[in-house]
Fold this protein.
Amino acid sequence: MPDMLVRLYALPDHNKPLKGGYVVRRAAAYDKSVILQWIGQSFSAQWASEADVAFSRQPISCFIALHQDRVVGFACYEATCRGYFGPGGVLEAHRGRGLGTILLLECLRSMKEMGYAYAIIGGVGPKDFYTKAVGAIEIPDSTPGIYTTPLGA
């Protein structure tokens, strides 16, 4: 899976309003154990390990999507490497509501505020999503990138 590059100085201006009782917010320290356990169960232990790093950042570099006070999505930045977005995901039952885009934009805007002009999305699965949402472009010869052979894979 290739890496993609995003121009942070060309991000869309606004998020679409959330409907249906969804909330997106920055994760807090007291959320850590619940979120990491949820990521491990819902996605993978590797993603939970990467997200764990986001909780060592100040401010915490993880945003979460909630529905009826339950985590249904997350996105991190500055977790795997400096200047990288990810990991991030939304439960399948909650996709198609704009949560992934809002989580992505919250992270990328935070990276822009840190002074980055560009961000890398590492090991991209849904290339079309990132291209449509933020104009990301594929980085040539970026497979496998930093994700060579994780332990336990």
Remarks:
- The chain has one domain: 4-138.
- The chain is about 30% helix and 25% strand.
- The mean pLDDT is 93.
